[in-house]
What does this fold into?
Amino acid sequence: MMSPLFWRDTRLWLAVLVAPLFWALLTLVMPLAGSAAVPFSDPLFYFQVALLYPVLEELLFRGVLQGYLSERLAGRAAGPLSLANLLTSVVFSLVHLIYRSGSTALLVFLPSLVFGYFRERYAGLRIPIALHCYYNAGFYFLFVS
It folds into this structure.
């Protein structure tokens, strides 16, 4: 698939606009933080969760794992999504069970599919990393006090 210029990509803008819907879904399983002061009260923590961890997770999951699975499962798909993306997203969600509840780890599956889709659409990691940083920044701003 030919990758469009990102600023003209309506699917990418849809992914950006869907993030608040994702955060709204999270309110079903997590309370909102009492204060939105996290970025200001602990900037190192916020840097880690909003930038460092998403970059490392994307390098590992979308870069290494999804890249490997894409080579091994070339062209196999489940509907509009590649099997490599689906399997990577399952593993990504399972890893989040280590430090999140089952329902929250399950909700991580949906954004993971989005990140994987854009990894394939753009044949690279810049867009998935940017989206992951955005999703994490919003999550920690709203849900972690």
In short: The CA atoms of residues 5 and 122 lie 9 Å apart. The beta strands are 77-78, 81-82. The longest strand covers residues 77-78. The chain has a mean pLDDT of 89.
